[in-house]
Write a structure and sequence with these properties.
Blueprint: E1 4-5, H1 6-17, E2 21-24, H2 31-37, E3 43-46, H3 50-64, E4 68-72, H4 76-80, H5 82-91, E5 95-101, H6 118-121, E6 127-130, H7 137-149, E7 155-161, H8 162-166, E8 168-169, H9 191-200, E9 204-208, H10 210-214, H11 218-228, E10 232-234, E11 249-252, H12 261-267, E12 270-274, E13 293-298, E14 312-315, H13 318-332, H14 335-364, H15 373-383, E15 390-394, H16 397-403, E16 414-415, H17 426-436, E17 442-447, H18 457-463, E18 469-474, H19 479-489, H20 504-511, E19 514-518, H21 524-534, E20 538-543, H22 551-557
Parallel strand pairs: 2-3, 2-4, 4-5, 5-7, 6-7, 9-10, 9-12, 10-11, 12-13, 13-14, 15-16, 15-17, 17-18, 18-20, 19-20
Antiparallel strand pairs: 1-8
Helix pairs in contact: 1-2, 1-7, 3-5, 3-17, 11-13, 15-21, 19-22
């Protein structure tokens, strides 16, 4: 057999695995891989910053439910990728980060871009691997992708020293491995106990989180709530697994959302947590009725019982467990009885939803200038009304306003950073969404602070002919920080909270895109129509009211100030 280099083995393994895109920024330590991917079935999608490459891979992994791939060079390329990895870990996004590093023979010699990378990233990922022998490269690549996709998804790190990539592998020692895992365990022993709990409840709710999305459980969830009449809420990537337009879905489970979530969380007597995490957004479990029975289902055992004692712990795939529940309900014929018993509860939540929306309507319909940010969010939501439309939210207050407003009709079609609260995800997420869904309309709504982080990804969108529409909520600075400081210390510190007027739309025009400037609320929809009709990457720079305080700002002002009872 002919001798083969490590770099070629990496390329062959990725090609054989069917990887379509690698999101990357080039560098000397990964050129040995690049040279064998050039002209192959794998597209090297180059970004302007390694952070953006990882964010694109993360979005790809979220939307496809299979690991996205990012590749960065050693040293600063590696460190630039870390924020994206931290975000992916908190959001349970499947991805594989491939990084080059200094050669094994050059370690501790003060070689170019030398640093000890493995100890830095190991706590941030599901697993970190370093391959020291060219012959074992196919094994390590298979191991990395299996680890990222199995169980609870997450990021995996795979490092190749440059002399391993340039070194020749002994053909006799190469072991080619390619294993796909498709496991959907159902803890059927818990179904009967679960049925008993439903049978004694009067005010139950379902909260479906990211685990429901990764389990592809939409069909089973909808069937379950239709069988039982239990009102449902969704969170994180679970948004849309039960469409917000379904009669038994009461939209987001976040209490700040205008609607029924606050009433439901505080008064339900049975909380059915399906692939969701009980963290900050539920005040660490304290938002729920103290007397409520808690059922928590998750594929990851460490997540069950976090912050709150659980009455029934189910370690299972959401879809498989729901399918088994649906079978039992059908066999016993108990659905009608439950639907009748819970009908008054559903009516109560419908009334709470109407009341919550009524309180928010003045902001959604506000005609003031500068524009109320809730009015902007409502205009975007109303315009992006097709099932295949994809909306991405990025920023502090801006992400909060959109999360309070967006109607999610289809799972996998609403993206934000999640609990890590990482700014700068917006442009990479939107570019990845458009790349994956070229026929869908993709709209990013982003704060003027956040857009500055990865602004040159506008150039990537233009160069790659990805006609995304970016709406900037321009409140002249870091609104969430400004307002939280005003609430906590009585005034905003100008340094670090104020940016001022920037004509972002003109900057995008200079890059070759389209720019639109909006000052009046009645001009938002015409601007969206013009942007999407143009077929160009477009920036709509919307001047919003810098004085409006979001619930997120109020929460940030209390950060670290939680009082023990």
């Amino acid at each position: 057999m002919e001798a083969i280099t490590g770099g070629e083995l990496v390329a062959r393994s990725l090609i054989t695995r069917g990887i379509k895109y690698i999101f990357t920024l080039s560098g000397g330590h990964i050129t040995p891989i690049y040279q064998y991917l050039e002209g192959s079935s794998v597209t090297l999608f180059d970004t302007r910053h390694e952070q953006a490459a990882v964010f694109m891979a993360e979005a790809w992994g979220r939307m496809t439910r299979s690991p996205g791939t990012a590749m960065v060079t050693a040293g600063p390329g590696f460190t630039n990728a870390l924020s994206g990895i931290a975000n992916a870990r908190m959001a349970n996004s499947p991805l594989v980060l491939i990084s080059g590093c200094v050669g094994l023979e050059s370690s501790e010699k003060l070689d170019l871009q030398d640093m000890c990378q493995l100890p830095v990233i190991s706590p941030m990922v599901k697993k970190a691997f370093v391959c020291h022998h060219p012959e074992r490269i196919p094994e390590f690549i298979d191991l990395a992708y299996r680890t990222a996709a199995s169980g609870r998804p997450g990021p995996v790190y795979l490092e190749f020293p440059v002399d391993v990539l340039n070194g020749e592998a002994n053909p006799e020692k190469i072991k080619t491995i390619h294993t796909d895992i498709d496991s959907h365990p159902a803890d059927s022993d818990k179904v009967e106990r679960f049925m008993e709990m439903i049978g004694t409840a009067h005010r139950p709710i379902v909260i479906a989180g990211s685990g429901a999305w990764y389990a592809d459980a939409s069909k089973e969830l909808v069937q379950f709530i239709e069988h039982t009449g239990i009102p449902a809420f969704t969170s994180s990537l679970g948004r849309g697994t039960i469409p917000d337009t379904h009669p038994f879905c009461f939209e987001s489970s976040l209490a700040i959302r205008p609607g029924a979530a606050l009433v439901a969380n505080m008064t339900a007597d049975l909380i059915i947590f399906l692939g969701a995490r009980m963290g900050l957004f539920y005040i660490f479990g304290d938002i729920f009725n103290r007397e409520a029975i808690i059922v928590q289902l998750d594929i990851e055992p460490e997540e069950i019982g976090r912050n709150r004692s659980v009455d029934l712990a189910v370690m299972s795939d959401v879809g498989a467990f729901m399918a088994e529940c649906n079978r039992v309900i059908g066999e016993k014929g108990i659905g009608n009885e439950w639907r009748n018993r819970f009908s008054d509860w559903v009516t109560t939540l419908k009334k709470a939803r109407e009341d919550g929306r009524a309180q928010a309507t003045p902001d959604w319909e506000c005609d003031t200038v500068p524009i109320h940010p809730m009015r902007l969010a409502r205009e975007v939501d109303a315009f992006m009304d097709q099932d295949d439309d994809i909306v991405v939210a990025d920023g502090g207050d801006t992400q909060v306003w959109m999360g309070m407003t967006r109607t999610v009709r289809k799972a996998g079609h609403y993206l934000d950073s999640g609990l890590y609260g990482c700014l700068a995800v917006g442009l990479p997420y939107a570019n990845a969404a458009k790349l994956l869904n070229p026929d869908a309309r993709v709209c990013l709504i982003i704060g003027d602070g956040s857009v500055g982080f990865n602004f040159m990804e506008f150039e990537v969108a233009i160069r790659r002919k990805l006609p995304i529409v970016v709406v900037i909520s321009n409140d002249l600075g870091w609104g969430m920080i400004r307002h939280s400081q005003e609430l906590r210390i009585g005034h905003a510190i100008k340094e670090g909270s104020y940016i001022g007027r920037v004509d972002y739309h003109k900057l995008v025009e200079a890059l070759g895109g389209k720019g639109i400037y909006v000052e009046r609320p009645e001009d938002i929809r015409p601007a969206l129509e013009e942007a999407f009709a143009s077929g160009m990457t477009t920036c709509i720079n919307v001047m919003t009211d810098p004085s409006v305080v979001s619930p997120g700002s109020v929460a940030l002002a209390s950060l670290g100030a939680y009082k023990a009872e």
